[in-house]
């Protein structure tokens, strides 16, 4: 689990400035089970 968390943290720092929806960066993170564009529970207006 630590390996996954560290990978996601490293990749989040490499986020592209444009085209995040269709970038290879997003699909690489989604392969590891993390969608960077999805609102997290802390960002939700319903919380």
| Helical percentage | 40-55%
Number of strands: 0
* Gap between N and C termini: 27 Å
Describe the biggest sheet?
none
**Which H/E pattern describes the elements?**
HH
Total helical segments: 2
Query: Structural class, judged by helices and strands?
Result: mainly alpha
Strand content: under 5%
Give Rg in angstroms.
12 Å
Mean pLDDT: 85
Structure report:
- The protein has 47 residues and is mainly α.
- It has a domain at 2-31.
- The protein is 40% helix and 0% strand.
- The chain is built from two helices and no strands.
- It has helices at 2-12, 24-31.
- The protein is globular and about 30 Å long.
- The mean pLDDT is 85.
Keywords:
single chain; 47 residues; mainly alpha; 2 helices
Give the helix/strand layout.
Layout: H1 2-12, H2 24-31
Q: What is the structure about, briefly put?
A:
With 47 residues, this protein is mainly α. The protein has helices spanning 2-12, 24-31. It has a domain at 2-31.
